[in-house]
Amino acid sequence: MSFIKLSQVNKRYPDGHQVLSNVSCEVAAGEMVFLTGHSGAGKSTLLKLLAAIERPTSGSVLVGGQNLAALKPFAIPILRRNLGLVFQDHKLLFDRSVFDNAMLPLSIIGYPPKEAAKRVRAALDKVGLLSKEKALPITLSGGEQQRLCIARAVVNRPSILLADEPTGNLDAQYAEDIMQLFTTFNQVGTTVLISTHDEAVLSRYANRRLHLEQGRLVA
Ligand SMILES: Nc1ncnc2c1ncn2[C@@H]1O[C@H](COP(=O)(O)OP(=O)(O)OP(=O)(O)O)[C@@H](O)[C@H]1O
């Protein structure tokens, strides 16, 4: 049940700012879709609604069959186990190694340590960071930190991956590597929603786009 469905979603922040207006859309299970739009169009806000970081003012937000508008606080961690989040404020733990950072989602759910270590190494290998597992994040380049965030997001094999500008500030080669990674996850069945205004990425990938303009979805 890894589909996403928004119905007539409005989001107004407490300061009165109306950021999303009557947004309805669907992303099918197993699809990879881009979320595009100008700066301030509401892309991050939409992704935050899907991760239950923010709540809609009205409308329904279905993720994997659950309506997040009505989600009780205790259910949020259960929802997030199914989600891989690559957000801009990636919040790596700078006093912990690359390995420990990638392990975090599995530690939280009490995953058996031996099996967890295998998964962490597999994820680090996928993003090309296995040789740096003992390093501290501060010693990594921006692109490597971004790739570590992706390893951490996929280590618990989420059925839905949400990425907010994952290639922002990266050079073209890193950006391409990251897009290839998302494509690989999508090919094994993960539903992927990526917000981007990276023209280089958009010109190379023909995936469906959801385009926001001033908080409204336009075709
Ligand atoms: N917590 C908040 N309180 C009030 N306004 C907010 C809050 N978060 C975002 N906004 C406003 O909502 C609008 C949409 O922001 P959002 O971050 O969703 O846009 P975006 O399309 O992701 O932009 P960008 O591409 O620049 O990241 C902006 O005008 C922003 O200032």
From TrEMBL:
Name of the featured protein: Cell division ATP-binding protein FtsE
Family: Belongs to the ABC transporter superfamily.
BP term (GO), one: amino acid transport
Keyword ATP-binding part of the UniProt annotation: yes
The entry's keywords: Amino-acid transport, ATP-binding, Cell cycle, Cell division, Cell membrane, Membrane, Nucleotide-binding, Translocase, Transport
Topology in the lipid bilayer: Peripheral membrane protein
Residue ranges occupied by any ABC transporter domain in the UniProt entry: 4-218
Function (record text): Part of the ABC transporter FtsEX involved in cellular division. Important for assembly or stability of the septal ring.
InterPro entries, A to Z: AAA+_ATPase, ABC_transporter-like_ATP-bd, ABC_transporter-like_CS, ABC_transpr_LolD-like, Cell_div_FtsE, P-loop_NTPase
Recorded GO CC terms: plasma membrane
Chain ranges passing through the membrane: none
Assembly: Homodimer. Forms a membrane-associated complex with FtsX.
Organism: Leeia aquatica
Cellular localization per UniProt: Cell inner membrane; Cell membrane
Domain of life from the UniProt record: Bacteria
Pfam family membership, one: ABC_tran
Single GO MF annotation: ATP binding
Main localization (coarse): membrane
